[in-house]
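Rotation project, supervised by the postdoc (A.L.). Task for the rotation student: set up a whole-complex structure prediction and record inputs and outputs verbatim in this book. Inputs entered:
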Amino acid sequence: MSANQFGSRFVITSFGESHGAALGVVVDGCPAGVNFDQALLTTQMERRRPGQHGSGQIVSGRNEGDQVEVLSGVFEGKTLGTPIAMIVRNQDARSGDYSQIKNSARTGHADDVWKNKFGHSDHRGGGRSSGRETVSRVMAGSVAQMYMQHASPKTRVIGYAAQIGPLTLSDAEKAQVAKTNIDACQARFPAKNQNEVSELLKKAQENGESYGGIAEILIENPPAHLGQPVFHKLKSDLAMAFLSVGAANGFELGAGFEATETPGTAFHTPESQVYGGIRGGVSTGENILLRVSFKPTSSILDVAKKGRHDPCIVTRAIPVLEAMTWLVLADHLLWSKTDKY
Amino acid sequence: MSANQFGSRFVITSFGESHGAALGVVVDGCPAGVNFDQALLTTQMERRRPGQHGSGQIVSGRNEGDQVEVLSGVFEGKTLGTPIAMIVRNQDARSGDYSQIKNSARTGHADDVWKNKFGHSDHRGGGRSSGRETVSRVMAGSVAQMYMQHASPKTRVIGYAAQIGPLTLSDAEKAQVAKTNIDACQARFPAKNQNEVSELLKKAQENGESYGGIAEILIENPPAHLGQPVFHKLKSDLAMAFLSVGAANGFELGAGFEATETPGTAFHTPESQVYGGIRGGVSTGENILLRVSFKPTSSILDVAKKGRHDPCIVTRAIPVLEAMTWLVLADHLLWSKTDKY
Amino acid sequence: MSANQFGSRFVITSFGESHGAALGVVVDGCPAGVNFDQALLTTQMERRRPGQHGSGQIVSGRNEGDQVEVLSGVFEGKTLGTPIAMIVRNQDARSGDYSQIKNSARTGHADDVWKNKFGHSDHRGGGRSSGRETVSRVMAGSVAQMYMQHASPKTRVIGYAAQIGPLTLSDAEKAQVAKTNIDACQARFPAKNQNEVSELLKKAQENGESYGGIAEILIENPPAHLGQPVFHKLKSDLAMAFLSVGAANGFELGAGFEATETPGTAFHTPESQVYGGIRGGVSTGENILLRVSFKPTSSILDVAKKGRHDPCIVTRAIPVLEAMTWLVLADHLLWSKTDKY
Amino acid sequence: MSANQFGSRFVITSFGESHGAALGVVVDGCPAGVNFDQALLTTQMERRRPGQHGSGQIVSGRNEGDQVEVLSGVFEGKTLGTPIAMIVRNQDARSGDYSQIKNSARTGHADDVWKNKFGHSDHRGGGRSSGRETVSRVMAGSVAQMYMQHASPKTRVIGYAAQIGPLTLSDAEKAQVAKTNIDACQARFPAKNQNEVSELLKKAQENGESYGGIAEILIENPPAHLGQPVFHKLKSDLAMAFLSVGAANGFELGAGFEATETPGTAFHTPESQVYGGIRGGVSTGENILLRVSFKPTSSILDVAKKGRHDPCIVTRAIPVLEAMTWLVLADHLLWSKTDKY
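Outputs recorded:
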């Protein structure tokens, strides 16, 4: 297993530095004959772009365009069963912005850590540790989603912000997410009061403040039987997938940490949803609920980003978490094809 | 990557059903020349046994003896660089206890899920989904620890219960863990008031109640530079490792979910320990703090275990989480040997 | 990928030193529900034993008994989809024979090479570099064969000696192999004149001589579509499998090196069998013919084996090559399940 | 392990169809700090081009230019320890040439096999089964060579044609290869009589004839201790590497098939070079000699190539085999870093 690779059957290899020539990904293991849905890919890439959609006018940042070029693996609109390579050029690099920090580590960033580890690093904008790396994930995740739309058409992956700094969704608001257009909500936070969150983030940007938050991923109608004993339980692969996202520092399945507050006799009832759709590491076919916490964005401390920083990373992380979810689902669906004779 | 395998460089393959002939593990990738510390292995296996040490008189369960037999890979007291295979016989199988439930799924257990997935399963005591599978992890983790004691002698892995049902350690109590003999504490819960936890668990066992809880793993003096971009960040591999443990349903690095409650300007200070010793996915050399939540034990619902169930899984999980931590550390330390020319 | 592991889907991990406690293998990835054919396993292990069957009275050597113990992964006569661990105890170790050579490398053996590489090695009888390691391969290959008998019942793997030192099969003799009981032939060499080969080997043993030779593996009715672009072509995985056997030093598919002597216009005819059943790296469904060359046994130089050495390794290698063939077939058949949507 | 991936430590992922947008490769696992030798890369790509150097005026074919674009992993002239992605655009595609054969399989080609396997394939020029795929290998092999030049500066990999159809090098000619400029020889065949081979190939091209042949790879001064037991012996990984090249159908280490013709007492002498520099699967530090046979080019049968076909594939295969050799060496050198404590 190499460092920049994810998956056992639907395998992706990610590459690219933030300010290098391009970012890209190679998808190896996608079956042949899947319709390559270019519109889906474009939509997902658009959703990932900083300063778009849910994050509205509030979240700015680099505006890259991010045209995906498919280099291989697709012919006459269908996958070939051969590796699908996709790249996005870095157009809006502004290396100049970063030259001043060549020799000064940015607090909260990983520049110094990587420099020590490898002895040589691309100091421009975080290089490979930049959030821009998620471009590769969203491209690959879109292909996984294309495959899943064939193989399990009822499955949906719905990501939304459940908490942004001091603001938290109510249970009633959460109950509506499957029927809500999340991208139409301010900061992908589907609270009834949309002003509250937009005010919070606007002020944060003005004041150089940032917030942590929580993203929730709801998998509606997942295939049953996904997940492998012992180390590739569905929950362990999802945890790995989500924690591999920058600034993610917590993961919960179902009731998560709150489960510790309920006695077992109350917790384990036949009706309860507390297992989160996964038992013994394997999906039951019930909806799966996952939560990921993010620490406050450290870019507030970044001289180069003054005035255009992103006050809460959760909104931008949602399409990335969705992509990782599709990747895990596709990987395990393929894996399950050989479970029994 | 196969399903029962963990690690990229220090690779383990686990096998065995709860009521089959034996459980075992093969460690492939441990360098040659490491002193094979039989005493360490025995101690760790003893610490894993239900009804021992921290879990005191309170936690009962199967009492297996669990003599490890080393089948290969060790010669004249040192590792050979060849695969180290270790097995433990299942002596205390009592298959009879389980025959009644052959056709009735146990609520909260995975029996039915696995049965559906594979079309054929060993119904006796959970088969491979049993907690007994952790025998393999502790054997392998002990070898990882032997290697780490050579390669990074100052590194310590300290696991303890930070919460058991309604009881939680105070910050003052947590500050003492490195100096405390955790195994001497009731239920590995190092609270000043040891009666409280023993009373809670005794009553729970009498009443057929169970509790969830939180285990914390403190890595003292970890090597720096562990963790690989992008998908094998140290935090993602640790999350995967911990979530692969049965009943684990949440993971936190450093401040975790609480980080969401602090504004960035307060969170990101040079002095803070909130990053948990990992930045950009790579260890900084600072102490690493990890938390894992467990849902309440479902064995209370298990007819076969009435009167001898384990009211909180956290205590027993601690040696397993420590073993997984050593495995991740050894894997990444070996990996880091090829970071730079 | 770890060093002692083979396969991508049907994955085996081999362990054990020649004079350690046991040799063994873990098979991970065999689907659930395959009948575990104990008789087949016993037969194949018997066929692997030095001094048995084809090698008749001529080839002596260690007589191990080699009772296989299945430790996991099989329940009520069927595979569980969980790892299948199997071991064989080393009963006939005679370490004493080897103590004299602790500090003297045996010419043609790898003792010194391994000692230098790992800095520490088990000098007894070659340790892990011993031919006894093939016990693990035959156990695993038998399970692969069980799976293939379900999944592709018409497929047969037929191994035989095509050359033993100066003796070579004629084309007419080769044409009969599928109808011949190879194991009933002297040295598994199905020549019409059986005396010739038995005389040759008898004299060689008396005179301390040894011979190289060629084994051929004929795969009758292989499934079509096995093999993956680009690096896991069926031919490349077979070459790797066969060259991993000790003393093997050459590999041919179909016409092999002889193909170099025919002009293309004569070589490429629609009727010809010269492609060996594999085109573009993928099986066509036609019979596949493979050849493996072995250098003369170096054990003639081994003081400890005087008078009971094996004058030609080919006979003994045949069940091992067959096992490797079944492993590659099972691996690629599982792999092909996800070729297309 | 995914299908288009090679290596365990120095891992490459290849992608691209012959007539798609681009071919490329991602190298993951190259240590940081290696000088990226652009001139070496350019030279090796030039050497791979059909119609160049050794193949002289004789061997024509597509003339692609093949400018490599490095997309990631290199900064300020040094590797970053992050994935190195490189692509080459397909400029000279001429899809039109191939439209006529969309529905007619070309004899000896794999078009029909792949079509059946995947249900959908790129019929243009072989798609991914085209020899053009070797562009990816040569790019990756060049990076492996750059690493090896740091890590083992005395190691040389020398490839040459030892046989082209009816013509074979004499032992005297072979003894000179290390001192010969192979690329200056007609068809990379370093015979004294250079006219003979150029005449042979010229006539073959005129007459629509093709020949098989044998390439030899001499590794001078390889590092010792490369190769891992049991399945990743150096010889098995080399066999896999070479057999993964199109039209390769045989492999020999050292004496190879000829070893079968020498009795053991004559074969195993302390002075002999017959082991080929590898014992017990591990390199001894002595020179390693490898041979690969190729069947006659099937492109003679290809309507689209009439008059510009390549009469012997060996010449073109040599830079590819060299690239694969560097990849195996780099992979195993990195692997050996963790052999002992």
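Student's summary: Residues 314-336 of chain B form the longest helix (23 residues).
Supervisor addendum: The longest strand of chain B covers residues 156-164.
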